[in-house]
Every structure is written in C-alpha cells, then in structure tokens.
C-alpha cells in the first residue's frame, strides 16, 4: 500500500505530465474495490481516506 500511496500523489499523473489512460484505469479500479470487496480494509490507501 505504501507504493500505491506514493504513486497516487495528488496532482501528479502516473505516466507523463498530464492525466491520462493509466490514471483513468487505476482510478476506476480503485472505485470498484469497496463494491466488490466490502470486507477489505482500504484505510491504508490514501485515496479512500480523503
């Protein structure tokens, strides 16, 4: 989770200098985690603590 938090810094795209397909894919995947895995503790992921 530490690496995921490091990669998901606010305002910093995953690839290149602009928000793109990689950012969209990872954001979409993370949005589905609580739906399909409600029992998982997602608190270590900064995005879910905002």
Notes on the protein architecture:
The protein is mostly helical and 50 residues long. It is built from 3 helices and no strands. It has one domain (2-49). The protein has helices at residues 2-7, 21-36, 46-49.
Helicity range of the residues?
A: 40-55%
Indicate the overall shape. Answer: flat
> Whole-number radius of gyration?
11 Å
When the domains are counted, the total is 1
> How far from one another are the termini?
15 Å
Q: What is the string of helix and strand elements? A: HHH
Average pLDDT works out at 83
Counting DSSP H or I runs of 4 or more residues, the number of helices is 3
Structural class: mainly alpha
Largest sheet: none
Poorly predicted spans: none
* E-strand count: 0
Strand content: under 5%
Summarize this structure briefly.
The protein is 52% helix and 0% strand. By secondary structure, the protein is mostly helical. It has one domain.
């Amino acid at each position: 989770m530490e690496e995921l938090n490091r990669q998901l810094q606010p305002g910093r795209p995953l690839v290149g200098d602009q928000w793109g397909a990689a950012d969209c894919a990872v954001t979409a995947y993370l949005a589905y985690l609580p739906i399909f895995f409600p029992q998982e503790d997602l608190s270590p992921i900064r995005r879910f603590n905002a």
